[in-house]
What we know:
- By secondary structure, the chain is an alpha/beta fold.
- Helices cover 31% and strands 17% of the residues.
- The chain has 15 helices and 15 strands.
- It has helices spanning 48-60, 78-81, 114-122, 146-156, 159-162, 169-176, 198-205, 223-226, 231-245, 250-257, 358-361, 367-386, 398-407, 415-430, 442-448; strands at 40-44, 65-69, 97-98, 111-113, 138-142, 182-186, 210-213, 261-266, 269-276, 283-294, 301-312, 315-318, 322-323, 342-343, 346-347.
- It has a six-stranded parallel beta sheet. The chain has a three-stranded antiparallel beta sheet with strand order 9-10-11, with no helix packed on it.
- 38% of the residues are buried.
- Mean pLDDT is 87; it is low at 1-29.
Amino acid sequence: MASRCWRWWGLSAWPRTRLPPAGSTPSFRHHFSTQEKTPQICVVGSGPAGFYTAQHLLKQHPQAHVDIYEKQPVPFGLVRFGVAPDHPEVKSYGAEDHRALEIPGEELPGVFSARAFVGWYNGLPENQELEPDLSCDTAVILGQGNVALDVARILLTPPEHLERTDITKAALGVLRQSRVKTVWLVGRRGPLQVAFTIKELREMIQLPGARPILDPADFLGLQDKIKEVPRPRKRLTELLFRTATEKPGPEEAVRQASASRAWGLRFFRSPQQVLPSPDGRRAAGVRLAVTRLEGVDEATRAVPTGDIEDLPCGLVLSSIGYKSRPVDPSVPFDSKLGVIPNVEGRVMDVPGLYCSGWVKRGPTGVIATTMTDSFLTGQMLLQDLKAGLLPSGPRPGYAAIQALLSSRGVQPVSFSDWEKLDAEEVARGQGTGKPREKLVDPQEMLRLLGH
């Protein structure tokens, strides 16, 4: 669907979900000359970065003409495709690729990126052929961030608890048949370096039907260090410490004793190889190098001790980070950092071109961070416009794109088309008590639209 695009003219288009307030950066209006009254601005990508950039531009320059283009037949990017269905208020992933493990065996069946797995259960069309085999009893997630916890939670949550979410029908069917009973989350460093947040950790600890597994030995000598870390990290580590070392109360002990599933954190382990099954046809485990920490604070790094251990499993999910892809050969791109080289959003050596979101700053932060970052990019564009640094005079805007699409026989999906698909999804979900039943097949979407 990369050849299709949709065009959007208004800004009342966010899906039905709670988002951060739009007043996190100072608001001011520029005064523009008459020749700047109707600048034609193109935004590529309809995720939060694209929408927030467009919002800022229109708020500060109401005469601006903004078109948003999207490769999918539906808008909203990670707001639709990148979040666990049982956490509709949390939006935190926004890049098109993942970091490769770069270890032997990662190409084996049964090894997936967490990004693809999230896309699969969220209905991202390109991930609908994933077909994860959940017939094994143990899954290993390489990574200890919020995405890793999201995936672990979805694997272990009783399916009946997911029935009222917008998880896809196909994914829910596979999860109903899942035999996964244990999920390990593996990290190269220790408890002080985990990348998830306390809210997600607390929810995992209290997950119905599941119990946590933490090794008290991983927390030896940590009490004094906990006192020195910033408050958010301190509260998180204290919760981990208590869970690992304290005997649970009577009620919690009963709950854990009756749990049929478990999840655990394996610290100081670095993946070296995905181990094949005896017939070589699929993943059967992960070989891990035991590590120790060197350095202090932000410079802390994990180095191998020389010891190795094998962790048997039938499913391996890589959650070690996200990475943006190059946009176009004409746009500069730093393949090592996964970003477009820029100064405050201005693309280097390409006047008139700007970037925002993770392709601007790398895969860090959540939607509120993206909002602030996008507003700043919009502010830079407006400053350049006011200073006369952008091309002046009449610009064709969408008329040129429309002519190009027409010459290629491409019929774009419009925002009014999306509203029809939106209504169809909501209607399909009402019969089963879900907020919506997502359409996942682009061809079905186009048939419904008469394209």
